[in-house]
Amino acid sequence: MRLLLIEDEPDLLDSLAQALREEGYAVDTAEDGIDGLDKALTWDYNAIILDGMLPRLDGWAVLERLRLHKRTPVIMLTARDGSRDRVRGLDHGADDYVVKPFDLAELFARLRAVIRRTGTQTTTRLTIDRVEIDTAARTVRLDHQEIPLTAREYALVEYLAIHRGRLVTRSTLYEHLFDENESTLSNLLDVHVSNVRKKLGHDFIQTRRGHGYSIV
Ligand code: CA
Hints:
- By secondary structure, the protein is of the alpha/beta class.
- It is built from eight helices and twelve strands.
- It has two domains: about 1-120, Response regulator (Rossmann fold, 3-Layer(aba) Sandwich); about 125-215, Arc Repressor Mutant, subunit A.
- About 40% of the residues lie in helices and about 20% in strands.
- A hairpin with a 3-residue loop joins strand 11 (about 205-210) and strand 12.
- Helix 6 (about 150-160) crosses helix 8.
- Calcium ion binds next to loops.
């Protein structure tokens, strides 16, 4: 799952990006509306977290222009007293909003909900042979026993499972699991794949040498 976070307050941007990465999302960031809109139009994100008050182009204008081209789920960050702002956001096609200062757990829950509502996932449970993945609870069970995975391992398993039966290229996995700064660490993916195999069985993820991975 890859997210775009558009926020101009550096402290909030850093801490929120960090918290989202710890949840297992790959996070791209932008500090103004022009850069944010550019990234939102260039890449396919699972969701965008968009601040309202932004330099160069405000959040509502970003949303309005984005909606001319794309349906990417958007959660807007709005000020406590800004009920007009929230209405404006929803009218411009925001999928949800949270009021600053917000509770991280609430933002994560709303994020999972908009991704579920608007994404390709129609069910929250995927069963592949002896492995069961619950994408709402973000848990994985092997023979009905919950297996602890790191956030990144979970993200890898979930992405391959949603695309099961298909070859997923290494570059696609990099794009979905890691953010721009990490994508140069080319053996990171192999480490995660190896760890998942140790936990869920060697045959759970198949390697298509030179091409990528798949779950059949
Ligand atoms: Ca702001």
